[in-house]
Amino acid sequence: WREAVAAAASALQAGGLVAVPTDTVYGVACLAQDSAAVRSIYSLKGRNGAKPLAICLGDVERLYRYCHVNVPDELLRDLLPGPVTLVLERSEELNKDLNPFTSLVGVRIPDHPFMRDLARACPGPLALTSANISSQGSTLTVLEFQDLWPQLSVVIDGGPIGDMQSPECRLGSTVVDLSVSGKFSIIRPGCALTPTVEILKKKYGLVPES
Q1: 202, CA 20 to 30 Å: which among 67, 121, 132, 135?
Q2: Is the pTM above the cut of 0.90?
Q3: What are the helix (H) ranges across the chain?
Q4: 50 Ramachandran zone, left/alpha/beta (phi>0; psi -120 to 50)
Q5: CATH number assigned to the domain comprising residue 142
Q6: pLDDT band at 210, cuts 50/70/90?
Q7: How far is C-alpha 10 from the geometric centre of its chain's CA atoms?
Q8: Domain count, the chain
């Protein structure tokens, strides 16, 4: 385990792309502060340059460095770590070349021990996206994105993720915009929509943005 974390962390620090298991689907990560690596992720996926990448951190505390937070800390901890991406106002600390077209950034803290250990082993945030060619289905095993292997520095096989037969498993994280005080808007329903909305509405009194 420690060797796998160390191998993945050193590949990331050398500017490489690493395939990783998360709590939702397989992902590809690079160092978010490394502009060349961020460009490599876009070309690997054939991804539209105007589609943002999320950042991944190991702990809620680290989120405050890269985002301006306007919700209670307890709310962050009710949703993270978990299968949710929170969209917040980005801070000056974040690489200007990461999503330069928006003042917001999505933050993931996957509820997956390997991912959290890897994020903690790296100096700054990871940029994280699903391990698949853009517009193709997300992947639940490493064999499903075999065509990407030659362009990856390291592939971490965490075994199958979730229930392979269930279409819900491929939905990825629920993406919710919390950048407007007192409100939330769902950007992608994802796999955790109902419990996420329940926490935001019932416990914190946030209202859906129309």
Answers
A1: 67
A2: yes
A3: 2-13, 35-45, 60-66, 73-79, 113-121, 193-198
A4: alpha
A5: 3.90.870.10
A6: confident
A7: 20
A8: 1
